[in-house]
Amino acid sequence: MAEPKTSELMEKIVSLCKRRGFIFQSSEIYGGLNGFWDYGPLGAELKRNIKECWWRSMTQLRDDVVGLDASIIMHPKIWEASGHTSTFSDLMVDCLLTKKRFRADQVEPQTGTAYFYTGAIDGGAGKESKDAFSVLVPAGKPPESARKAAKQFYQARGIENPALLGERTEEVKDSTRYNPENGSLLTEPRPFNLMLKTYVGPVESEDNNAYLRPETAQAIFVQFKNTLDVSRQRVPFGVCQIGKAFRNEINPRNFTFRSREFEQMELEFFIRPDEVVQKLTGSIASLSDAQPSPLVPQPNWGWELWHKYWVEQRIRWYESIGLGRDTLVEYWQEKGELAHYARACVDILFKFPFGTQELEGIAARSDFDLTQHQKFSGKSMEYFDEEAKAKYVPHVIEPSAGVDRLALALICNAYCEDQAPDEKGKLESRVVMKFHPRIAPIKVAVFPLLKNKPELVQKAKAVRDLLRPHMSVFYDEAGAIGRRYRRQDEAGTPFGVTIDFDTLGEKGPELQDTVTLRDRDTMKQERVRIGDLVSMLLEKIR
Ligand code: ATP
Fold it and tell me: Are residues 476 and 366 in the same domain?
């Protein structure tokens, strides 16, 4: 089957998300709210599974990472210390004609003829504007379109019948100064702070300003000492957290990819400064020592190897939930791209239908954050290392991922159209969501072959009740069996169990209490004993 074009594919995915209840527009009956999304029954399960898999792999399956669940609104000083109040901004530009706002670095470069005007005059009304304006006209479009746009610009400034002044033209190439949608000049770029502000307490005053956290990480830093005191951990160790974050993104787009409210899964992994490692072990392992794979932590690791280790761990985790290496790109930021405190940062990108984009960033952040909080709070963030007999502020490696971006990546990755036989064996096209069983919203669907045979229905309900304590089960008796399979294919349910007359022993005792187990992807069916179902399925979904 021909591969659908990108936008066509994204349209299909967005429509399936609504139709099957993965993702709805927030506040839809009131016209929606840009940048906010709700997860329907299947989406809610998918997100829970993502978070549970992450939490299990990050902390429950390790000795050296503990969890935290901190509040969303925290002391505003935290954001001063972290630098968010002064620098957490994107450059924005506004269209001079429509006022539409863009992120400056996301404006598509434009090529064509730029028409410049020095102002406009309305002789009859005795009015004049000296505001300069410019419009870009791409090749093939008439100059009149520039004049029309310019007139609109001056009309909006009170010049009712504008005669344009000082028209001149210039060829421009790959300019990002113009609105790609209408050619109008954009304002000069200016910074826009992305933190969402609110007030705490009954008085709306500057003194009561607070922010919805733009990332979960800072809570981990400010609770570093408390967590250390109670968890009996020793450096190197980590603290992880899953929670909501908010950013007043200038231009939310690409479905849920860039939202204003989203969830993050972050780990701060605290390590010894390299000088301490050097003193303790006499050497620092270099990247060329990064053998074998998977890397096994060693006492002589400095930040470089710990960073490399976490990059590898995270890619392996993505693989374990169905995102193959061929769908991911490991992007090592260039020196010039790094934040001033970062020593290295790797972005893990996913090949979305709308482009290859970031899923997670893994940064080596030095001791920047703890030192900043030490400075701003006046409280020591130093750690006494018994083994090294040294006191220091730990350094940190931070893998920071987005739940919603990952849910979207998993949905895009799972979407598949293929051919399946209908009741009569005729091939028809089907949409199947090939989620890895670990993160599939529903693990197994249970069907009685016919709904009007009470013995089949009773048995099927007994199988459902047997499976339910162990996994999410969907029971469905409505419609032809082929149609029921198709519905579960679209929901991404990896297994289907059908209870038929053989189950009841009508074809002989050897098949009694066996069911067919259908595999969503291969559509193959095998006969399985009911007594073996739980262990067999658990093995496949864990
Ligand atoms: P971008 O450059 O795409 O804005 P970022 O580099 O600012 O992302 P980080 O601050 O490193 O992102 O946040 C860590 C992770 O949080 C990202 O990799 C992403 O998965 C998620 N995330 C960040 N911003 C958003 C958003 N607006 N919507 C959804 N997820 C987001």
Answer: no
